[in-house]
Amino acid sequence: MEDTPEADKTDFIRELIRSDNAKGLHGGRVQTRFPPEPNGYLHVGHVKSICLNFGVAHEFDGTCNLRFDDTNPEKESAEFVAAIEQDLQWLGFTSATGPLFASDYFEQLFAWAVQLVEAGLAYVDDQSAAEIAEARGDFTTPGTNSPWRDRLVEENLDLLHRMKAGEFGDGERVLRAKIDMTHANMSMRDPLMYRIRHVTHHRTGDDWCIYPNYDWAHGQSDAIEGVTHSFCTLEFENNRELYEWFLDSLGLPASRPQQTEFNRLSLTHTVLSKRKLAHLVDTGVVSGWDDAQMPTVRGLRRRGYPAAALRDFCAHISVGKVSGTTEVELLESFVRTELNRVSERRMAVLKPLKLVLTNWPEGHVEMRTVVNNPEDESAETREVPFSGELWIERDDFMVDPPKKFFRLAPGREVRLRSGYFVTCTNVVYGDDGELTEVHATYDPETAGGQAPDGRKVKATMHWVSASHAIEAEIRLYNRLFTDSHPGSGDSDPLDSLNVNSVEIVTAQVEPALVETQPGQVVQFERIGYFARDLDESMLFHRTVGLRDEWSRIQKRT
Ligand code: ATP
Ligand code: MG
Known about the structure:
The chain has 557 residues and is an alpha/beta fold. The protein has three domains: 6-262, HUPs (Rossmann fold, 3-Layer(aba) Sandwich); 274-344 and 472-556, CATH 2.40.240.10; 353-452, CATH 2.40.240.10. It has helices spanning 12-22, 44-59, 78-91, 106-118, 129-135, 153-165, 214-225, 240-250, 274-282, 297-303, 307-317, 328-342, 549-556, and strands spanning 31-34, 63-68, 100-101, 122-125, 174-177, 192-196, 210-212, 229-233, 258-262, 344-346, 348-349, 352-357, 366-371, 381-386, 389-393, 413-416, 421-429, 435-442, 460-461, 464-465, 470-477, 502-509, 521-524, 528-532, 539-545. The strands form six sheets. The protein has a seven-stranded mixed β-sheet with strand order 10-23-24-25-21-22-11, covered by helices on one side. It is elongated. Bound molecules: adenosine-5'-triphosphate (ATP) and magnesium ion (MG). Adenosine-5'-triphosphate (ATP) is lined by residues 35-37, 45-46, 48-49, 232-233, 264-265, 272-274.
Protein backbone atom coordinates (compact mmCIF):
# COMPACT_ATOMS: atom_id res chain seq x y z
CA MET A 1 0.00 0.00 0.00
CA GLU A 2 1.07 3.56 -0.62
CA ASP A 3 2.29 5.70 2.21
CA THR A 4 -0.61 7.32 3.98
CA PRO A 5 -0.35 10.48 6.10
CA GLU A 6 0.59 8.12 8.94
CA ALA A 7 4.14 7.90 7.67
CA ASP A 8 5.45 10.70 9.88
CA LYS A 9 2.93 10.28 12.63
CA THR A 10 3.75 10.45 16.24
CA ASP A 11 1.88 9.10 19.23
CA PHE A 12 2.87 7.20 22.36
CA ILE A 13 3.04 3.90 20.49
CA ARG A 14 5.32 5.17 17.76
CA GLU A 15 7.43 6.85 20.45
CA LEU A 16 7.64 3.57 22.32
CA ILE A 17 8.83 1.72 19.24
CA ARG A 18 11.41 4.38 18.43
CA SER A 19 12.68 4.14 21.98
CA ASP A 20 12.73 0.30 21.88
CA ASN A 21 14.64 0.44 18.62
CA ALA A 22 17.10 2.95 20.05
CA LYS A 23 17.73 0.54 22.95
CA GLY A 24 18.27 -2.28 20.46
CA LEU A 25 15.33 -4.28 21.83
CA HIS A 26 14.31 -7.18 19.55
CA GLY A 27 17.34 -6.23 17.44
CA GLY A 28 15.30 -3.37 16.00
CA ARG A 29 12.70 -5.78 14.65
CA VAL A 30 9.02 -4.75 14.76
CA GLN A 31 6.31 -7.37 14.53
CA THR A 32 2.68 -6.79 15.42
CA ARG A 33 -0.52 -8.77 15.00
CA PHE A 34 -4.22 -8.18 14.61
CA PRO A 35 -5.99 -10.86 16.65
CA PRO A 36 -9.74 -10.99 15.94
CA GLU A 37 -11.93 -13.66 17.40
CA PRO A 38 -13.88 -15.16 14.48
CA ASN A 39 -17.21 -14.82 16.27
CA GLY A 40 -18.63 -11.91 14.27
CA TYR A 41 -17.84 -9.37 11.62
CA LEU A 42 -15.32 -6.56 11.85
CA HIS A 43 -16.59 -3.11 12.79
CA VAL A 44 -15.08 0.35 12.61
CA GLY A 45 -13.51 -0.13 16.06
CA HIS A 46 -11.52 -3.04 14.67
CA VAL A 47 -10.44 -0.79 11.81
CA LYS A 48 -8.67 1.43 14.32
CA SER A 49 -6.78 -1.58 15.65
CA ILE A 50 -6.02 -2.81 12.12
CA CYS A 51 -4.69 0.59 11.03
CA LEU A 52 -2.56 0.75 14.14
CA ASN A 53 -1.08 -2.74 13.85
CA PHE A 54 -0.55 -2.79 10.10
CA GLY A 55 0.34 0.89 9.99
CA VAL A 56 3.06 0.63 12.63
CA ALA A 57 4.51 -2.50 11.02
CA HIS A 58 4.61 -0.76 7.64
CA GLU A 59 6.20 2.43 8.99
CA PHE A 60 8.94 0.57 10.85
CA ASP A 61 9.69 -1.92 8.07
CA GLY A 62 8.20 -4.68 10.15
CA THR A 63 5.44 -7.20 9.64
CA CYS A 64 1.94 -7.69 10.96
CA ASN A 65 0.16 -11.03 11.23
CA LEU A 66 -3.51 -11.71 11.03
CA ARG A 67 -4.09 -14.17 13.83
CA PHE A 68 -7.47 -15.60 14.61
CA ASP A 69 -7.96 -15.95 18.32
CA ASP A 70 -10.11 -19.04 17.86
CA THR A 71 -10.33 -20.46 21.35
CA ASN A 72 -14.13 -20.34 21.87
CA PRO A 73 -15.47 -22.96 19.45
CA GLU A 74 -19.13 -22.47 20.44
CA LYS A 75 -19.34 -19.03 18.87
CA GLU A 76 -16.78 -19.21 16.10
CA SER A 77 -17.02 -20.36 12.52
CA ALA A 78 -15.16 -20.66 9.24
CA GLU A 79 -17.69 -18.24 7.76
CA PHE A 80 -16.49 -15.47 10.09
CA VAL A 81 -12.87 -16.32 9.33
CA ALA A 82 -13.48 -15.88 5.61
CA ALA A 83 -15.44 -12.66 6.12
CA ILE A 84 -12.70 -11.12 8.27
CA GLU A 85 -10.07 -11.99 5.67
CA GLN A 86 -12.17 -10.36 2.94
CA ASP A 87 -12.80 -7.25 5.00
CA LEU A 88 -9.12 -6.88 5.79
CA GLN A 89 -8.28 -7.14 2.12
CA TRP A 90 -10.94 -4.59 1.23
CA LEU A 91 -9.44 -2.22 3.80
CA GLY A 92 -6.16 -2.50 1.89
CA PHE A 93 -4.07 -4.59 4.27
CA THR A 94 -2.29 -7.89 3.75
CA SER A 95 -0.94 -10.06 6.51
CA ALA A 96 2.70 -10.98 6.40
CA THR A 97 2.11 -14.71 6.37
CA GLY A 98 -1.45 -15.48 5.40
CA PRO A 99 -3.87 -16.16 8.23
CA LEU A 100 -2.58 -17.71 11.44
CA PHE A 101 -4.69 -19.40 14.10
CA ALA A 102 -4.31 -19.78 17.84
CA SER A 103 -5.76 -23.26 17.32
CA ASP A 104 -2.59 -24.19 15.42
CA TYR A 105 -0.75 -23.74 18.72
CA PHE A 106 -2.96 -26.00 20.85
CA GLU A 107 -0.27 -28.71 21.08
CA GLN A 108 2.42 -26.23 22.10
CA LEU A 109 0.10 -24.57 24.62
CA PHE A 110 -0.69 -27.92 26.15
CA ALA A 111 2.99 -28.83 26.40
CA TRP A 112 3.63 -25.53 28.15
CA ALA A 113 0.72 -26.14 30.51
CA VAL A 114 2.29 -29.45 31.45
CA GLN A 115 5.54 -27.58 32.07
CA LEU A 116 3.78 -25.18 34.45
CA VAL A 117 2.08 -28.06 36.29
CA GLU A 118 5.45 -29.80 36.66
CA ALA A 119 6.91 -26.58 38.04
CA GLY A 120 4.11 -26.41 40.63
CA LEU A 121 2.69 -23.32 38.95
CA ALA A 122 -0.65 -24.72 37.81
CA TYR A 123 -3.24 -27.09 39.28
CA VAL A 124 -6.46 -28.83 38.43
CA ASP A 125 -9.43 -27.45 40.33
CA ASP A 126 -12.59 -29.49 40.85
CA GLN A 127 -14.69 -26.56 42.02
CA SER A 128 -17.72 -25.53 39.97
CA ALA A 129 -17.70 -22.26 38.04
CA ALA A 130 -19.96 -20.71 40.69
CA GLU A 131 -17.68 -21.82 43.53
CA ILE A 132 -14.66 -20.44 41.70
CA ALA A 133 -16.37 -17.11 41.13
CA GLU A 134 -17.46 -16.95 44.77
CA ALA A 135 -13.96 -17.68 46.06
CA ARG A 136 -12.33 -15.02 43.89
CA GLY A 137 -13.38 -12.23 46.23
CA ASP A 138 -13.64 -8.74 44.81
CA PHE A 139 -11.72 -5.48 44.76
CA THR A 140 -12.07 -5.05 48.51
CA THR A 141 -12.15 -8.71 49.60
CA PRO A 142 -9.25 -11.09 49.07
CA GLY A 143 -10.04 -14.42 47.47
CA THR A 144 -9.75 -17.76 49.23
CA ASN A 145 -7.74 -20.78 48.20
CA SER A 146 -9.41 -23.69 46.49
CA PRO A 147 -9.44 -26.91 48.51
CA TRP A 148 -7.68 -28.49 45.49
CA ARG A 149 -4.92 -25.90 45.28
CA ASP A 150 -2.25 -28.01 46.94
CA ARG A 151 -2.69 -31.16 44.92
CA LEU A 152 0.52 -33.01 44.21
CA VAL A 153 2.17 -32.49 40.87
CA GLU A 154 1.59 -36.13 39.85
CA GLU A 155 -2.10 -35.94 40.59
CA ASN A 156 -2.40 -32.67 38.64
CA LEU A 157 -0.58 -34.17 35.67
CA ASP A 158 -2.77 -37.24 35.72
CA LEU A 159 -5.97 -35.16 35.90
CA LEU A 160 -4.84 -32.75 33.20
CA HIS A 161 -4.14 -35.62 30.80
CA ARG A 162 -7.49 -37.16 31.64
CA MET A 163 -9.20 -33.81 31.05
CA LYS A 164 -7.58 -33.74 27.63
CA ALA A 165 -8.53 -37.36 26.98
CA GLY A 166 -12.20 -36.52 27.51
CA GLU A 167 -12.81 -38.39 30.75
CA PHE A 168 -14.74 -35.51 32.34
CA GLY A 169 -17.83 -33.58 31.42
CA ASP A 170 -18.04 -29.89 30.60
CA GLY A 171 -17.25 -27.69 33.58
CA GLU A 172 -16.24 -30.61 35.85
CA ARG A 173 -12.66 -29.46 36.18
CA VAL A 174 -10.41 -26.60 35.11
CA LEU A 175 -6.71 -25.96 35.01
CA ARG A 176 -5.66 -22.84 36.89
CA ALA A 177 -2.41 -20.97 37.27
CA LYS A 178 -1.20 -21.02 40.88
CA ILE A 179 -0.42 -17.41 41.63
CA ASP A 180 -2.04 -15.65 44.58
CA MET A 181 -5.69 -15.62 45.65
CA THR A 182 -5.15 -12.45 47.63
CA HIS A 183 -3.44 -10.54 44.82
CA ALA A 184 -4.56 -6.90 44.48
CA ASN A 185 -4.93 -7.50 40.75
CA MET A 186 -7.95 -9.77 40.31
CA SER A 187 -6.50 -11.13 37.06
CA MET A 188 -3.75 -12.73 39.14
CA ARG A 189 -6.07 -14.68 41.47
CA ASP A 190 -5.33 -18.14 40.09
CA PRO A 191 -6.69 -17.45 36.60
CA LEU A 192 -8.19 -20.21 34.49
CA MET A 193 -6.00 -21.72 31.80
CA TYR A 194 -8.16 -24.54 30.43
CA ARG A 195 -11.81 -25.41 30.57
CA ILE A 196 -13.58 -28.52 29.34
CA ARG A 197 -15.91 -28.08 26.36
CA HIS A 198 -17.05 -31.06 24.37
CA VAL A 199 -17.72 -29.10 21.22
CA THR A 200 -16.45 -29.36 17.69
CA HIS A 201 -14.00 -26.67 16.68
CA HIS A 202 -14.22 -25.24 13.17
CA ARG A 203 -10.58 -26.12 12.53
CA THR A 204 -9.48 -28.78 15.00
CA GLY A 205 -12.74 -30.70 14.84
CA ASP A 206 -13.06 -33.06 17.82
CA ASP A 207 -9.33 -33.31 18.51
CA TRP A 208 -9.69 -31.28 21.65
CA CYS A 209 -12.23 -31.08 24.43
CA ILE A 210 -10.20 -28.66 26.54
CA TYR A 211 -9.77 -25.14 25.26
CA PRO A 212 -7.32 -22.48 26.47
CA ASN A 213 -8.65 -19.28 28.01
CA TYR A 214 -7.84 -15.95 26.40
CA ASP A 215 -5.02 -15.01 28.77
CA TRP A 216 -3.35 -18.38 28.44
CA ALA A 217 -3.61 -18.44 24.65
CA HIS A 218 -2.87 -14.86 23.79
CA GLY A 219 0.60 -13.99 25.04
CA GLN A 220 1.91 -17.46 24.25
CA SER A 221 0.61 -17.18 20.67
CA ASP A 222 2.38 -13.84 20.43
CA ALA A 223 5.58 -15.49 21.66
CA ILE A 224 5.30 -18.43 19.26
CA GLU A 225 4.98 -16.07 16.31
CA GLY A 226 7.79 -13.79 17.44
CA VAL A 227 5.56 -10.78 17.95
CA THR A 228 7.51 -7.88 19.44
CA HIS A 229 4.68 -5.44 20.21
CA SER A 230 1.26 -6.68 21.25
CA PHE A 231 -1.31 -3.86 21.21
CA CYS A 232 -4.68 -4.23 22.83
CA THR A 233 -7.35 -1.92 24.17
CA LEU A 234 -7.29 -0.36 27.64
CA GLU A 235 -9.68 -2.86 29.27
CA PHE A 236 -6.81 -5.34 29.15
CA GLU A 237 -4.53 -3.20 31.27
CA ASN A 238 -5.05 -5.48 34.28
CA ASN A 239 -4.27 -8.54 32.17
CA ARG A 240 -0.77 -7.27 31.38
CA GLU A 241 0.65 -8.55 34.65
CA LEU A 242 -0.67 -12.01 33.87
CA TYR A 243 0.58 -11.78 30.28
CA GLU A 244 4.05 -11.22 31.71
CA TRP A 245 3.68 -13.80 34.46
CA PHE A 246 3.03 -16.56 31.94
CA LEU A 247 5.99 -15.58 29.78
CA ASP A 248 8.23 -15.32 32.85
CA SER A 249 7.06 -18.63 34.25
CA LEU A 250 7.71 -20.42 30.97
CA GLY A 251 11.21 -19.00 30.97
CA LEU A 252 10.94 -17.79 27.39
CA PRO A 253 13.90 -15.85 25.95
CA ALA A 254 14.37 -12.21 26.81
CA SER A 255 13.31 -10.92 23.37
CA ARG A 256 9.68 -11.55 23.82
CA PRO A 257 6.43 -9.75 23.21
CA GLN A 258 5.38 -6.84 25.29
CA GLN A 259 1.75 -5.79 25.74
CA THR A 260 0.76 -2.14 25.39
CA GLU A 261 -2.77 -0.82 25.74
CA PHE A 262 -4.40 1.98 23.76
CA ASN A 263 -7.81 3.64 23.83
CA ARG A 264 -10.57 1.94 21.91
CA LEU A 265 -12.69 3.78 19.40
CA SER A 266 -16.18 4.79 20.43
CA LEU A 267 -18.41 6.84 18.15
CA THR A 268 -21.45 8.93 19.00
CA HIS A 269 -24.84 7.57 17.90
CA THR A 270 -23.21 4.19 17.31
CA VAL A 271 -22.84 0.89 19.14
CA LEU A 272 -19.55 -0.90 18.66
CA SER A 273 -19.55 -4.23 20.33
CA LYS A 274 -20.21 -7.48 18.58
CA ARG A 275 -22.71 -8.47 21.24
CA LYS A 276 -24.76 -5.30 20.83
CA LEU A 277 -24.48 -5.41 17.05
CA ALA A 278 -25.65 -9.03 17.10
CA HIS A 279 -28.65 -7.88 19.11
CA LEU A 280 -29.59 -5.43 16.32
CA VAL A 281 -29.41 -8.25 13.82
CA ASP A 282 -31.30 -10.74 16.00
CA THR A 283 -34.13 -8.35 16.78
CA GLY A 284 -34.53 -7.45 13.10
CA VAL A 285 -33.73 -3.77 13.64
CA VAL A 286 -31.36 -4.14 10.69
CA SER A 287 -31.47 -6.67 7.86
CA GLY A 288 -28.12 -8.25 8.71
CA TRP A 289 -24.48 -7.60 9.59
CA ASP A 290 -24.04 -5.99 6.19
CA ASP A 291 -27.02 -3.65 6.43
CA ALA A 292 -25.99 -0.18 5.27
CA GLN A 293 -26.87 1.18 8.72
CA MET A 294 -24.38 -1.06 10.51
CA PRO A 295 -20.96 0.25 11.61
CA THR A 296 -19.46 -3.03 10.43
CA VAL A 297 -16.89 -2.95 7.65
CA ARG A 298 -19.48 -4.67 5.44
CA GLY A 299 -22.20 -2.25 6.37
CA LEU A 300 -20.01 0.80 5.82
CA ARG A 301 -18.90 -0.62 2.51
CA ARG A 302 -22.48 -1.13 1.37
CA ARG A 303 -23.20 2.40 2.53
CA GLY A 304 -20.38 3.68 0.30
CA TYR A 305 -17.66 4.53 2.82
CA PRO A 306 -14.34 4.32 0.95
CA ALA A 307 -11.60 2.25 2.58
CA ALA A 308 -9.24 5.21 2.11
CA ALA A 309 -11.55 7.44 4.17
CA LEU A 310 -11.61 4.88 7.01
CA ARG A 311 -7.81 4.72 6.97
CA ASP A 312 -7.46 8.51 6.91
CA PHE A 313 -9.93 8.84 9.77
CA CYS A 314 -8.01 6.31 11.88
CA ALA A 315 -4.74 8.09 11.13
CA HIS A 316 -6.28 11.36 12.21
CA ILE A 317 -7.82 10.23 15.52
CA SER A 318 -4.56 8.47 16.40
CA VAL A 319 -4.05 6.38 19.51
CA GLY A 320 -3.73 7.48 23.08
CA LYS A 321 -4.20 6.41 26.67
CA VAL A 322 -7.42 8.25 27.39
CA SER A 323 -10.73 6.77 26.36
CA GLY A 324 -13.39 9.02 24.96
CA THR A 325 -16.04 9.17 22.31
CA THR A 326 -15.36 10.51 18.85
CA GLU A 327 -18.07 12.47 17.07
CA VAL A 328 -19.49 10.42 14.19
CA GLU A 329 -19.58 13.65 12.16
CA LEU A 330 -15.78 13.60 12.12
CA LEU A 331 -15.80 10.19 10.45
CA GLU A 332 -18.39 11.45 7.99
CA SER A 333 -16.26 14.46 7.13
CA PHE A 334 -13.41 12.13 6.10
CA VAL A 335 -15.85 10.20 3.95
CA ARG A 336 -17.09 13.42 2.35
CA THR A 337 -13.58 14.70 1.66
CA GLU A 338 -12.60 11.49 -0.06
CA LEU A 339 -15.84 11.22 -2.04
CA ASN A 340 -15.65 14.84 -3.15
CA ARG A 341 -12.32 13.99 -4.69
CA VAL A 342 -13.17 10.70 -6.36
CA SER A 343 -16.88 10.50 -7.07
CA GLU A 344 -18.52 11.49 -10.31
CA ARG A 345 -21.52 13.81 -10.35
CA ARG A 346 -24.90 12.70 -11.56
CA MET A 347 -28.37 14.19 -11.55
CA ALA A 348 -31.20 12.61 -9.62
CA VAL A 349 -34.54 14.10 -8.62
CA LEU A 350 -35.71 12.74 -5.30
CA LYS A 351 -39.11 14.44 -5.07
CA PRO A 352 -40.09 14.90 -8.71
CA LEU A 353 -42.20 17.76 -10.07
CA LYS A 354 -42.89 18.02 -13.82
CA LEU A 355 -41.48 21.06 -15.64
CA VAL A 356 -42.88 21.57 -19.16
CA LEU A 357 -41.01 23.89 -21.55
CA THR A 358 -43.83 25.27 -23.69
CA ASN A 359 -41.58 26.71 -26.41
CA TRP A 360 -39.40 23.59 -26.79
CA PRO A 361 -39.66 22.01 -30.27
CA GLU A 362 -42.11 19.08 -30.11
CA GLY A 363 -40.33 15.72 -29.68
CA HIS A 364 -36.86 17.27 -29.83
CA VAL A 365 -34.09 15.76 -27.68
CA GLU A 366 -30.72 17.41 -27.23
CA MET A 367 -27.65 15.84 -25.66
CA ARG A 368 -26.12 18.24 -23.14
CA THR A 369 -22.45 17.84 -22.18
CA VAL A 370 -22.01 17.75 -18.42
CA VAL A 371 -18.78 17.71 -16.40
CA ASN A 372 -18.33 14.47 -14.42
CA ASN A 373 -16.22 15.82 -11.59
CA PRO A 374 -15.14 19.45 -11.31
CA GLU A 375 -12.47 18.29 -8.81
CA ASP A 376 -10.92 15.91 -11.31
CA GLU A 377 -10.40 16.87 -14.96
CA SER A 378 -9.48 13.33 -15.93
CA ALA A 379 -13.06 12.29 -15.12
CA GLU A 380 -14.11 14.09 -18.34
CA THR A 381 -17.71 14.72 -19.37
CA ARG A 382 -20.85 12.81 -20.27
CA GLU A 383 -23.87 13.43 -22.47
CA VAL A 384 -27.21 13.87 -20.75
CA PRO A 385 -30.48 13.97 -22.70
CA PHE A 386 -32.47 17.20 -22.36
CA SER A 387 -36.06 17.58 -23.63
CA GLY A 388 -39.21 19.65 -23.26
CA GLU A 389 -40.49 17.69 -20.26
CA LEU A 390 -38.22 17.51 -17.28
CA TRP A 391 -38.30 16.45 -13.66
CA ILE A 392 -37.18 19.04 -11.15
CA GLU A 393 -37.17 18.86 -7.33
CA ARG A 394 -40.49 19.70 -5.75
CA ASP A 395 -38.59 21.76 -3.17
CA ASP A 396 -37.00 23.89 -5.91
CA PHE A 397 -40.34 25.49 -6.75
CA MET A 398 -42.70 27.72 -4.78
CA VAL A 399 -45.88 29.40 -5.98
CA ASP A 400 -45.58 32.14 -3.43
CA PRO A 401 -41.94 32.28 -2.34
CA PRO A 402 -40.71 34.06 0.77
CA LYS A 403 -37.97 36.68 0.40
CA LYS A 404 -34.98 34.38 0.73
CA PHE A 405 -36.18 31.73 -1.72
CA PHE A 406 -34.22 32.22 -4.96
CA ARG A 407 -35.20 29.12 -6.90
CA LEU A 408 -38.06 28.73 -9.38
CA ALA A 409 -41.30 30.68 -8.86
CA PRO A 410 -43.88 32.23 -11.18
CA GLY A 411 -42.26 34.88 -13.41
CA ARG A 412 -38.74 33.99 -12.25
CA GLU A 413 -35.77 32.87 -14.35
CA VAL A 414 -33.28 30.20 -13.17
CA ARG A 415 -30.52 28.10 -14.71
CA LEU A 416 -30.88 24.39 -15.35
CA ARG A 417 -27.37 23.03 -14.80
CA SER A 418 -25.52 22.61 -18.15
CA GLY A 419 -28.92 23.15 -19.84
CA TYR A 420 -30.70 26.44 -20.39
CA PHE A 421 -32.17 29.42 -18.57
CA VAL A 422 -35.90 28.89 -18.03
CA THR A 423 -38.61 31.29 -16.87
CA CYS A 424 -41.73 30.07 -15.11
CA THR A 425 -44.88 31.14 -16.95
CA ASN A 426 -47.71 29.08 -15.55
CA VAL A 427 -48.71 26.54 -12.91
CA VAL A 428 -51.10 23.59 -13.42
CA TYR A 429 -53.17 22.02 -10.65
CA GLY A 430 -54.90 18.63 -10.64
CA ASP A 431 -58.54 18.02 -9.67
CA ASP A 432 -57.50 17.56 -6.04
CA GLY A 433 -55.94 21.02 -6.01
CA GLU A 434 -52.42 19.56 -5.92
CA LEU A 435 -49.72 21.15 -8.03
CA THR A 436 -49.05 18.80 -10.97
CA GLU A 437 -46.98 20.76 -13.48
CA VAL A 438 -44.98 23.91 -13.81
CA HIS A 439 -44.82 25.52 -17.23
CA ALA A 440 -41.88 27.58 -18.40
CA THR A 441 -40.17 28.90 -21.49
CA TYR A 442 -36.52 28.36 -22.20
CA ASP A 443 -34.13 30.83 -23.79
CA PRO A 444 -32.43 29.10 -26.77
CA GLU A 445 -29.55 31.61 -26.53
CA THR A 446 -28.48 30.21 -23.14
CA ALA A 447 -27.30 26.69 -24.14
CA GLY A 448 -24.92 25.30 -21.55
CA GLY A 449 -26.37 27.61 -18.92
CA GLN A 450 -24.67 30.89 -19.94
CA ALA A 451 -26.50 33.99 -21.19
CA PRO A 452 -24.64 35.82 -24.01
CA ASP A 453 -25.90 39.16 -22.67
CA GLY A 454 -24.27 38.35 -19.33
CA ARG A 455 -27.51 38.44 -17.35
CA LYS A 456 -27.42 36.59 -14.07
CA VAL A 457 -29.81 34.24 -12.29
CA LYS A 458 -29.76 33.47 -8.61
CA ALA A 459 -30.23 29.70 -8.75
CA THR A 460 -28.88 26.70 -10.63
CA MET A 461 -31.03 23.60 -10.42
CA HIS A 462 -30.59 19.96 -11.40
CA TRP A 463 -33.06 18.17 -13.66
CA VAL A 464 -33.72 14.90 -15.46
CA SER A 465 -35.46 14.51 -18.82
CA ALA A 466 -38.81 12.88 -18.01
CA SER A 467 -38.95 10.50 -20.96
CA HIS A 468 -35.37 9.33 -20.35
CA ALA A 469 -35.52 9.14 -16.58
CA ILE A 470 -35.01 5.83 -14.78
CA GLU A 471 -36.71 5.04 -11.51
CA ALA A 472 -34.45 4.25 -8.60
CA GLU A 473 -35.08 3.42 -4.97
CA ILE A 474 -33.20 5.77 -2.70
CA ARG A 475 -32.63 5.10 0.98
CA LEU A 476 -32.01 8.21 3.02
CA TYR A 477 -30.47 7.43 6.38
CA ASN A 478 -30.71 9.33 9.59
CA ARG A 479 -28.97 8.36 12.82
CA LEU A 480 -29.85 4.83 13.91
CA PHE A 481 -29.90 6.00 17.54
CA THR A 482 -31.22 9.35 18.68
CA ASP A 483 -29.11 9.24 21.85
CA SER A 484 -25.52 10.35 21.28
CA HIS A 485 -24.33 7.60 23.64
CA PRO A 486 -26.75 4.72 23.00
CA GLY A 487 -26.60 2.03 25.66
CA SER A 488 -24.56 4.17 28.03
CA GLY A 489 -24.78 3.23 31.67
CA ASP A 490 -27.09 0.26 31.96
CA SER A 491 -29.53 1.44 29.30
CA ASP A 492 -30.55 -0.68 26.36
CA PRO A 493 -29.39 0.95 23.09
CA LEU A 494 -32.75 -0.01 21.60
CA ASP A 495 -34.42 2.48 23.98
CA SER A 496 -33.09 5.28 21.80
CA LEU A 497 -33.61 3.56 18.47
CA ASN A 498 -34.63 6.10 15.85
CA VAL A 499 -37.82 4.71 14.31
CA ASN A 500 -37.30 7.09 11.37
CA SER A 501 -33.76 6.03 10.62
CA VAL A 502 -34.55 5.19 7.00
CA GLU A 503 -36.66 7.15 4.57
CA ILE A 504 -37.30 5.44 1.26
CA VAL A 505 -38.13 7.45 -1.85
CA THR A 506 -38.58 6.61 -5.50
CA ALA A 507 -36.45 8.99 -7.48
CA GLN A 508 -36.20 9.88 -11.16
CA VAL A 509 -32.55 9.63 -12.14
CA GLU A 510 -30.51 10.27 -15.27
CA PRO A 511 -29.90 7.27 -17.54
CA ALA A 512 -26.13 7.18 -16.95
CA LEU A 513 -26.81 5.86 -13.45
CA VAL A 514 -27.67 2.49 -14.95
CA GLU A 515 -23.96 2.15 -15.75
CA THR A 516 -22.90 2.68 -12.14
CA GLN A 517 -21.06 -0.33 -10.73
CA PRO A 518 -22.28 -2.11 -7.59
CA GLY A 519 -20.72 -0.32 -4.64
CA GLN A 520 -19.72 2.73 -6.70
CA VAL A 521 -20.47 6.07 -5.10
CA VAL A 522 -21.62 9.12 -7.05
CA GLN A 523 -22.60 12.57 -5.97
CA PHE A 524 -26.18 13.42 -6.76
CA GLU A 525 -25.81 17.09 -7.60
CA ARG A 526 -26.91 19.33 -4.74
CA ILE A 527 -28.11 16.35 -2.63
CA GLY A 528 -25.31 14.19 -1.38
CA TYR A 529 -23.24 11.07 -2.00
CA PHE A 530 -24.99 7.85 -2.88
CA ALA A 531 -23.70 4.31 -3.23
CA ARG A 532 -25.23 1.83 -5.58
CA ASP A 533 -26.20 -1.26 -3.67
CA LEU A 534 -23.91 -4.28 -3.89
CA ASP A 535 -26.76 -6.64 -4.76
CA GLU A 536 -29.91 -4.88 -5.88
CA SER A 537 -29.65 -3.01 -9.10
CA MET A 538 -31.46 0.33 -8.96
CA LEU A 539 -31.07 0.86 -5.24
CA PHE A 540 -28.91 3.66 -3.88
CA HIS A 541 -27.90 4.31 -0.27
CA ARG A 542 -27.18 7.81 0.92
CA THR A 543 -23.59 7.61 2.10
CA VAL A 544 -23.42 11.15 3.52
CA GLY A 545 -25.07 14.45 2.79
CA LEU A 546 -23.18 17.40 1.32
CA ARG A 547 -23.19 19.62 4.35
CA ASP A 548 -20.08 19.45 6.47
CA GLU A 549 -21.63 19.05 9.90
CA TRP A 550 -18.22 18.53 11.45
CA SER A 551 -17.04 22.06 10.64
CA ARG A 552 -20.24 23.42 12.18
CA ILE A 553 -19.62 21.40 15.34
CA GLN A 554 -16.09 22.74 15.51
CA LYS A 555 -17.26 26.33 15.13
CA ARG A 556 -19.72 25.86 17.96
CA THR A 557 -17.12 24.55 20.39
P1 ATP B 1 -16.12 -6.31 20.62
O1 ATP B 1 -15.91 -5.51 21.86
O2 ATP B 1 -16.72 -5.54 19.51
O3 ATP B 1 -16.83 -7.60 20.85
P2 ATP B 1 -13.65 -7.64 20.70
O4 ATP B 1 -12.54 -6.92 21.36
O5 ATP B 1 -14.29 -8.71 21.47
O6 ATP B 1 -14.67 -6.60 20.12
P3 ATP B 1 -11.92 -9.06 18.98
O7 ATP B 1 -12.25 -9.87 17.78
O8 ATP B 1 -11.39 -9.75 20.16
O9 ATP B 1 -13.22 -8.26 19.33
O10 ATP B 1 -11.00 -7.84 18.57
C1 ATP B 1 -9.84 -7.93 17.79
C2 ATP B 1 -8.97 -6.74 18.06
O11 ATP B 1 -9.68 -5.53 17.77
C3 ATP B 1 -8.56 -6.66 19.52
O12 ATP B 1 -7.17 -6.44 19.56
C4 ATP B 1 -9.33 -5.50 20.07
O13 ATP B 1 -8.62 -4.84 21.05
C5 ATP B 1 -9.55 -4.62 18.84
N1 ATP B 1 -10.77 -3.82 18.98
C6 ATP B 1 -12.03 -4.26 19.15
N2 ATP B 1 -12.89 -3.23 19.30
C7 ATP B 1 -12.14 -2.10 19.20
C8 ATP B 1 -12.44 -0.69 19.27
N3 ATP B 1 -13.68 -0.25 19.48
N4 ATP B 1 -11.41 0.18 19.13
C9 ATP B 1 -10.16 -0.26 18.92
N5 ATP B 1 -9.82 -1.55 18.84
C10 ATP B 1 -10.79 -2.47 18.99
MG1 MG C 1 -12.50 -9.98 22.38
